[in-house]
């Protein structure tokens, strides 16, 4: 009897033992990917820092050639008593597309908080990755908690359908949230990676009909279900996954007493036509509008193009009706790159249920938009803000942190106007961002005929391009490296006595190399040339601290 029990125990545990041995062997021989969220690095000053692992995106994307464009925000491996640590979770808007560098709202927030609290070590760590959704946010939450954040900011929800593992995404493994979350947990094991890679090798067709990122846009590569009707099964699946994942994320933060700030989402409703709509006799519809036929309003309730056309008509006649129908057009758009309003409803509901602070970003943007309708004034294309829009986001989170008293002593409070005048972004990065948007708007899905292709040739300027325009184009085409371009720009502006532009360069370099005393020194020198002695002292103090720290490590 005892032998039978022992035999059953061995039989039950043998597969686990085999898997464990396989896992150890694969790790020893370096097989597979290490999907840790943070990598350890040694700064120029000899201190240990952590930075987001740029290869972590490989966990969420398969067969897309996607390379992460996450930000590289260094933060101390061992948190000090003087450190205030903010983590940001989200996707491309949180990353800062299309401006990145000094134009993203996390870095604008860090810049302003650093000025407000010069004696603190302000860390704003951006963990956002383009084209991910709530599955990725849930997957990295435990790793963020390990780093002892003082507050976490979550701005996410646009990618629930086409983001990695989303209900309408080409990078999907199923529509049941529990199974997808289990899949993500298994991805951390090398034996599972081996099985998955072997399966893909067997199942991969000899020739693929799918476009790659090199041939078209990431948006098209990720969009498997290009038409997701309102209230369809796929539509509901996207809502369910966001609701469930956000609940699990917030449960984890609540368990560890981590403060969280939630935010509603913004999208362009006034100046972006529905990407895909049911067919419409546009000429006949416009004629019916002139006759004020009731069919006009009935059709607008179910057809995206009809709703958008009616909304644009009302822009010059009745603001409330314009807002109503332009919003409806976004809701009825069959290509769901803009989050449906239900996503914002879930965010508001979760903030209330968990007693969390909410930044109603949509309401803030509406308050600064003509007629209260979001459009090109603050948003570059369908969802990504322009520089002013990103600044408004940073301002909203700055004010919310102040309101919550997460930091004490706001004697150096930086006003909206002061902060806006001190946006730490170069003209070069601004132009590069505008180029990226203009090329995107010539591609799919803005031009559906461009499916599977990219615009051939592009010239931002044709005659007498400025230094900034030439440099921005070279950066966009990956013909030059950003840090070398910035060094060149700094010296040029300094020689030209254009000290304000040189200061912007130095400030942007500080984001990339926060542990290097030289970049603070560069900023201080430009402030001194601008006769801003107080600001110069701020940068020189930072520089001297890092210089002394480096000397003590040598």
Kindly summarize this structure in a few lines:
GO terms for molecular function: hydrolase activity. The chain is an alpha/beta fold and 554 residues long.
Low-confidence stretches: none
| Order of SSEs | HEEEEHHEHEHHHHEHHHHHEHHHHHHHHH
The shape, in one word, is globular
DSSP strand tally? 8
For this entry, what is the oligomeric state of its chains? Answer: single chain
Strand content: 5-15%
Strand order of the largest sheet: 5-4-6-7-8
GO molecular function, one term: hydrolase activity
Protein name: SGNH/GDSL hydrolase family protein
Transmembrane segments: 7-30
Keywords: Hydrolase, Membrane, Transmembrane, Transmembrane helix
Describe this protein's structure.
With 554 residues, the protein is α/β, with parallel strands linked by helices. The protein is 50% helix and 7% strand. It is built from 22 helices and eight strands. It has helices spanning 2-28, 92-95, 105-116, 134-145, 177-186, 190-203, 218-222, 233-255, 282-290, 294-300, 304-314, 319-332, 341-354, 361-367, 387-404, 416-421, 427-440, 467-476, 482-495, 499-512, 517-529, 533-553, and strands spanning 38-42, 48-52, 75-76, 83-90, 121-126, 151-155, 260-263, 358-359. The protein has a five-stranded parallel sheet, with helices on both faces. A three-stranded antiparallel sheet has the order 1-2-3, with no helix packed on it. Strand 1 (38-42) and strand 2 (48-52) form a beta hairpin. The model has no long low-confidence stretch (mean pLDDT 91). Keywords: Hydrolase, Membrane, Transmembrane, Transmembrane helix.
């Amino acid at each position: 009897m005892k032998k039978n029990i022992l035999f059953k125990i061995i039989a039950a545990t043998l597969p686990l033992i085999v898997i464990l041995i396989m896992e150890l062997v694969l790790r020893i021989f370096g097989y597979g990917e290490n999907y840790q969220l943070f990598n350890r690095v040694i700064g120029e000053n000899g201190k240990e820092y952590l930075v987001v692992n740029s290869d972590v995106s490989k966990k969420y994307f398969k067969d897309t050639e996607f390379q992460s464009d996450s930000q590289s925000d260094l933060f101390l491996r061992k948190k000090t008593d003087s450190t205030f640590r903010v983590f940001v979770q989200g996707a491309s808007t949180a990353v800062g597309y299309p401006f990145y560098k000094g134009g993203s709202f996390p870095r604008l927030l860090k810049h302003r908080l650093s000025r407000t609290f010069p004696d603190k070590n302000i860390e704003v760590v951006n963990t956002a990755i383009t084209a991910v959704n709530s599955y990725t946010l849930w997957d990295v939450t435990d790793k963020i908690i390990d780093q002892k954040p003082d507050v976490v900011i979550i701005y996410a929800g646009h990618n629930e359908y086409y983001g990695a593992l989303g209900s309408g995404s080409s990078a999907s493994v199923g529509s049941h949230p529990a199974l997808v979350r289990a899949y993500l947990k298994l991805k951390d094991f090398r034996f599972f990676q081996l099985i998955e890679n072997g399966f893909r090798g067997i199942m991969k067709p000899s020739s693929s009909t799918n476009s790659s990122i090199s041939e078209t846009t990431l948006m098209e590569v990720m969009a498997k279900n290009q038409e997701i009707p309102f209230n369809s099964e796929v539509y509901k699946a996207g809502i369910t996954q966001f609701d469930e994942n956000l609940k699990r994320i917030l449960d984890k933060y609540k368990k560890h007493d981590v403060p969280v700030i939630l935010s509603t989402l913004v999208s362009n409703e006034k100046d972006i036509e529905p990407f895909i709509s049911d067919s419409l006799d546009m000429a006949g519809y416009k004629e019916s509008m002139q006759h004020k036929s009731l069919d006009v309003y009935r059709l607008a309730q179910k057809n995206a193009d009809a709703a958008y056309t009616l909304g644009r008509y009302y822009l010059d006649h009745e603001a409330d009706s314009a807002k109503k129908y332009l919003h409806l057009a976004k809701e009825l758009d069959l290509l769901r790159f803009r989050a449906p309003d239900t996503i914002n409803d879930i965010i508001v509901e979760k903030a209330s249920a968990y007693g969390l602070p909410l930044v109603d970003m949509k309401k803030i943007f509406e308050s600064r938009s003509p007629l209260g309708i979001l459009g090109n004034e603050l948003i570059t294309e369908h969802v990504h803000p322009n520089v002013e829009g990103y600044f408004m986001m940073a301002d909203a989170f700055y004010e919310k942190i102040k309101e919550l008293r997460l930091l004490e002593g706001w004697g150096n409070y930086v006003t909206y106007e002061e902060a806006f005048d001190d946006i730490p972004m170069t003209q070069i990065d601004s132009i590069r961002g505008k180029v990226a948007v203009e090329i995107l708007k010539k591609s799919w899905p803005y031009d559906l005929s461009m499916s599977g292709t990219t615009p051939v040739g592009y010239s931002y300027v044709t005659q007498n391009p400025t230094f900034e325009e030439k440099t921005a184009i070279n950066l966009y085409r990956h013909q030059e490296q950003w840090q070398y371009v910035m060094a060149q720009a700094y010296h040029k502006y300094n020689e030209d006595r254009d000290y304000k532009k040189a200061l912007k360069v130095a400030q942007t370099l500080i984001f990339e190399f926060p542990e290097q005393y030289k970049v603070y020194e560069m900023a201080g020198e430009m402030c001194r040339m601008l006769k801003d002695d107080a600001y110069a002292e701020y940068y020189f103090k930072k520089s001297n601290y890092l210089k002394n720290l480096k000397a003590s490590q040598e």
